[in-house]
Design a protein that fits this description.
2 domains, Aldehyde Dehydrogenase, Chain A, domain 1, binds magnesium ion, binds adenosine-5'-diphosphate, six-stranded mixed sheet, 496 residues, 16 helices
Length: 496
């Protein structure tokens, strides 16, 4: 390990200030402009970061383009070994990365930030091992020819990532893209540029310069020029539906492929025979309360059979009340702060909309931190609404905060229809001991990622992606690497 471990996240944030990684060099924006990175738990500035623009994007893409040629020529398994080596190096930094992410995003160290750092390393190791699977086919065309397909890299991949799980969501794009022989330029999220930059710095010790580049900046000034750049051969985007539409339009103009991982309003359906305590515990994890609900797969619509509804709500409110909100760095903390003042406002707006909904009751849970250090922090008490209907605004729009609605149901056909009555289709979970019912429900729910009696986050090896406005394409699996980061060529050799 040539870069010393830095377990003090404040010192590390300062060390990582004002840097992009372009062509293997840590450099500021060419304009010299910067913006502040805040700790949302305290609202203190912890670092500055480059305010990149089209000039920086162009520099990064040109470096990526040059580096990609030699990278693609390398044996696939050798590339895979290097990507896996990045995972091994990152595994040694789980604590360092976890602390940095907790400081930068307000996500609690024990429940969220450290686990995310360890999944990050695992994703690199997983994809590194898949290099020999970059296979084509042989085709029985006729006896005079040898007809085969080969999978080739696309070239330079432009990746745009969000702030809610920055390490994991970046890894799901860059690890398969690199193993497949592409080079990558990432535009980090303006709210969380530091953790991903540390990953880049570690990777830079292992990969050839220019193969992986990352720059920080805002969507219009740095994200848009990346999508528009004529040498970017594919765009992979994770973020909101509105921004996804803008990105997709630009990709369409350029006729380049585009993967979109967008929002969700994921249903959780609790059947009458479900184990109540297991379903309540499952609702807490499904709703990602430990991530302040800032997850596209959050179970923000919880349909509970009417026989269980009242007991479910009572137990769920008690369980969320028992969660400890406070210092993200404290091992005791379950729930940290939300990411930004803008997100705080959005969540408050939706809590207001929920409270104004006819028939709604707001169950406000868990106590705000009392420590004066966090008096300016962006802490939001989780809210469980009862008495709302699926058609209400609160159930139709993504909130991306610790707000969920528990909705009673009686008729099975009707609850399936309600679960599907949404523009989104990312994730879903069904809670029952009746296997036949579970299978029927998961087949009929319009969502890309369905679970029974659990609802865990995306895992390496499982294709993950949405239908409807939740997006296009899959991530996290062999399929994602083959279908989304290679292009197939047909080769016919006439042997006569
Ligand atoms: P949020 O609502 O959390 O800001 P966004 O979808 O706007 O979600 O952001 C996700 C990512 O998309 C971020 O990295 C952001 O900078 C980037 N982004 C925002 N606007 C654009 C745009 N017009 N073109 C490209 N990227 C963008
Ligand atoms: Mg935005």
């Amino acid at each position: 390990m040539t870069i010393p471990l830095q377990l003090d996240p404040h010192a590390l944030a300062a060390e990582l200030s004002n840097k992009n990684l372009i062509g293997g060099e840590l450099v500021p924006a060419s304009s010299g402009k910067t913006f502040d990175v805040i700790n949302p738990a305290t609202m203190e500035t912890i670092a500055t970061t480059p305010f990149s623009d089209a000039t920086d994007v162009d520099r990064a893409v040109q470096n990526a383009k040059t580096a990609q040629k030699a990278w693609a020529k390398m044996n696939a398994r050798d590339r895979g070994k290097l990507v896996a080596a990045c995972g091994t190096a990152l595994m040694e930094r789980v604590e360092e990365m976890g602390r940095l992410i907790a400081l930068e995003t307000g996500k609690a160290i024990r429940t969220e930030s450290r686990p995310e750092a360890s999944v990050l390393a695992d994703v690199f190791i997983y994809f590194g091992g898949l290099a020999s699977e970059l296979k084509g086919e042989s085709i029985p065309f006729n006896n005079e020819t040898l007809t085969v397909t080969v999978r080739q890299p696309i070239g330079v991949i432009g990746a745009i990532i969000p702030w809610n799980a920055p390490l994991l969501l970046m890894a799901l794009k860059i690890a398969p893209a690199l193993v497949a022989g592409n080079s990558v330029v990432v535009k980090s999220a303006e709210e969380a540029p530091l953790g991903v930059l540390r990953v880049a710095q570690v990777m830079n010790e292992i990969l050839p310069p220019g193969v992986f580049n990352i720059l920080s900046g805002f969507g219009p000034e740095a994200g848009a020029p990346l999508v528009e750049h004529k040498s970017v051969g594919k765009v992979s985007f994770t973020g909101s539906v509105d921004t996804g539409r803008i990105v997709y339009k630009t990709a369409a103009e350029r006729i380049v492929p585009c993967t979109l991982e967008l929002g969700g309003k994921s249903p959780m359906i609790v059947m009458a025979d479900a184990d109540l305590d297991r379903a309540v515990a499952g609702a807490l994890t499904s709703m990602r309360f430990t991530r302040q609900g800032q997850s596209c797969t959050a179970a923000s619509r919880i349909f509970v059979h009417e026989d269980l509804h009242d007991a479910f709500v009572e137990k769920m409110v008690a369980a969320v009340n028992a969660m400890k909100m406070g210092d993200p760095m404290d091992e005791e903390t379950d729930i940290g702060s939300v990411i930004s003042p803008q997100q705080f406002q959005t969540v408050q707006k939706y809590i207001g909309i929920g409270k104004d909904t006819a028939g709604a009751t707001a169950h406000v849970c868990s106590a705000l931190p009392t420590d004066a250090r966090f008096s300016k922090g962006l802490f939001v008490q989780p809210v469980i609404f009862t008495g709302t209907r699926n058609t209400d605004q609160i159930n139709q729009e993504e909130i991306f905060g610790p707000v969920t609605c528990v909705i009673p149901w009686r008729d099975y056909e009707d609850v399936i229809a309600q679960a599907n009555d949404t523009q989104f289709g990312l994730a879903a979970s069904v809670w029952t001991n009746n296997l036949k019912l579970a299978m029927d429900a998961v087949h009929r729910i319009e969502a890309g990622f369905c679970q029974v009696n659990q609802n865990v986050v995306v895992q390496a090896g499982l294709s993950y992606g949405g239908v409807k406005t939740s997006g296009l394409g899959k991530e996290a699996s062999l399929e994602s690497m083959l279908e989304h980061f290679t292009q197939k060529k047909t080769i016919i050799i006439n042997m006569t």
